[in-house]
């Protein structure tokens, strides 16, 4: 099971599922919908936060949030 947190800069994935039901609503509202392509764009020097391109914009999130988004 690969998550957004496992992606390297420039790597892409398609959102498949969420592992945290409580956090999934917040992520859905931010455009992280199942079937949407995401691309890792930035990783902070100490690894947290990260930035991904999703639905035409760049979304910054914590690694613990990103680790709840399963990608294929």
UniProtKB/TrEMBL annotation:
PANTHER family: FE(2+) TRANSPORT PROTEIN A (PTHR42954:SF2). The lineage of its organism: Bacteria, Pseudomonadati, Bacteroidota, Cytophagia, Cytophagales. It comes from Arcicella aquatica. It comes from the Bacteria. Residues 2-72 form the Ferrous iron transporter FeoA-like domain. Keywords: Iron. InterPro entries: Fe-transptr_FeoA-like, FeoA, FeoA_core_dom, Transcriptional_repressor_C. This is FeoA family protein. The keyword Oxidoreductase does not apply. Pfam families: FeoA (PF04023).
């Amino acid at each position: 099971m690969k998550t957004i947190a496992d992606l390297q800069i420039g790597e892409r994935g398609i959102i498949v599922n969420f592992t945290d039901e409580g956090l999934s609503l917040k992520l859905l509202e931010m455009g992280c919908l199942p079937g949407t392509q995401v691309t890792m764009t930035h990783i902070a020097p100490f690894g947290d936060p990260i930035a991904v391109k999703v639905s035409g914009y760049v979304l910054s999130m914590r690694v613990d949030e990103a680790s709840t988004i399963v990608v294929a």
